[in-house]
Design brief:
Blueprint lengths: L1 H8 L4 E3 L4 E5 L5 E5 L16 E4 L8 H12 L6 E4 L9 H8 L19 H10 L2 H7 L14 H6 L11 E6 L7 E8 L2 E9 L3 H15 L6 E4 L3 H6 L8 E3 L9 E2 L15 E2 L5 H14 L4 E2 L4 H12 L16 H8 L4 H16 L9 H24 L1
Helix pairs in contact: 9-12
């Protein structure tokens, strides 16, 4: 880009090769400064003022919305400046798609395909169509997004999470993801029904601190302990087993899935049984909760209230990477957490609290008032979780 700019300007302007800056004269007798930089150098632009910013290949920019809101948007305030965002659609990081969906009345949007370029011969476009696979042609030539066929979450539905309006109901919940060693952030997510009302993030919060904070929040928000779930790994194990929090749910991804779905093949009153047996088709509890979360997100049954751009971006990025990773053994499995960590370069802690919330929805399916034999099933679920906890403790002592 720098070399192309130098060719265009020729001998015009004062050039700084090290800083990739050119100062050029204006019609009014003043000067205009043009800067060029890669997205990876965005921190260098904090505190600057600009009249216009052009972002190229936006879908290749990681954490784009965080950088735009925290660094570049403030640079345009004093000058009343403008910005434009251009690039080719990329399904792995569809920032342009999100921009288009969130754009207000002061934005204009344009789409141009390769066919719209009069300088490209039509026979070359036809040759590309014949030689490219359908998805690549659609993305690179027709400038259209190609949905990831294996993705659990629809990207448009993820964006809608922050504008959905849903009935809240009366129940409140709290889900907590605890930093393993107390050095990272512990995340408290508060729910009113299936609407997230706020996120509280704490640094350097150890076991006693987490326990006390849960007690305070539960009392203030009128959340029963049976509606509190804690990621019971590492430090979380001590929190989940605290006698001061008797009744909370200790959640572990490795727990077996809860048998909530009836076997439609083995009907009631057949094989000498009065009820169709309960079965599960999930690898573990985490996968079961993830598939349910995806279903509710895609059907716009969950809402999140937050103006924090980092939290929004993290949620969209984390959930958009989950795939159906089933291995053909008859049990559905979602992408493992370790694989998500590797893909995004950090732990998906915020969305872990969303996943945990689904445990209560799974259990709610079989509450006593929902069926003649619901009380038996609800008891079985409680026993199931108790066995998981007992087995984990036994294994840790052997």
């Amino acid at each position: 880009m720098w070399n192309e700019l130098l060719k265009r300007l020729g001998n015009i302007g004062e050039k700084n090769e090290q800083r990739l800056e050119i100062k050029v004269p204006t019609r009014e007798g003043g000067t205009s400064l043009i800067k060029i930089a890669g997205w990876e150098n965005r921190e260098n632009f904090r505190g600057m003022k600009a009249h216009h910013i052009t972002f190229d290949e936006v879908d290749t920019c990681k954490d784009f919305f965080i950088g735009w809101q925290e660094i570049f948007r403030p640079a345009l305030i004093d000058t009343g400046g403008t910005a434009d965002f251009i690039g080719t659609p990329k399904k792995e990081n569809p920032n342009l798609r999100r921009l288009e969906k969130e754009a207000g009345s002061d934005w204009a949007m344009f789409k141009f395909t390769t066919k719209d370029n009069p300088h490209i011969p039509p026979h070359e476009i036809e040759a590309a169509r014949e030689s490219m696979d359908a998805d690549t042609y659609k993305q690179e030539i027709l400038a259209e997004y190609v949905d990831n066929a294996g993705a659990l979450f629809k990207y448009s539905a993820l964006i809608d999470l922050f504008s959905n309006t849903i009935p809240k109901g009366n129940d409140k919940f709290l889900t907590v993801d605890i930093a393993d060693d107390g050095s990272d952030k512990t995340i408290f997510t508060f729910w009113h029904g299936l609407e997230v009302t706020r996120f509280d993030l704490y640094s350097q919060l150890l076991t006693d601190g987490v326990v006390n904070q849960i007690r305070e929040d539960a009392a203030r928000e009128h959340i029963p302990y049976s509606h509190v779930a804690v990621d019971a790994i590492g430090v979380g194990a001590g929190v989940a087993s605290s006698p001061l929090l008797h009744g909370i749910v200790g959640f572990k991804s490795s727990y077996g899935a809860i048998r909530t779905d009836h076997d439609i093949v083995r009907l009631p009153n057949v094989h000498y049984t009065n009820d169709a047996p309960l079965v599960t088709e999930y690898k573990n509890l985490r996968s079961q909760c993830l598939f349910l979360l995806a279903s509710k997100v895609n059907q716009h049954e969950i809402a999140i209230r937050t103006e924090d751009q980092r939290i929004k971006s993290f949620i969209i990025e984390e959930l958009s990477h989950y795939q159906d990773a089933s291995k053909g053994d008859g049990k559905r499995m979602a992408t493992q957490k370790e694989d998500i960590k590797e893909l995004i370069g950090r732990s998906p802690d915020i969305t872990d609290t969303l996943i945990m919330r689904m445990y209560f929805e799974i259990r709610h399916r079989m509450l006593p008032q929902e069926g003649e034999h619901g009380h038996i099933i609800a008891t079985a679920i409680d026993e199931h979780m108790s066995r998981n906890i007992a087995n984990q403790r036994l294994n840790s002592t052997i």
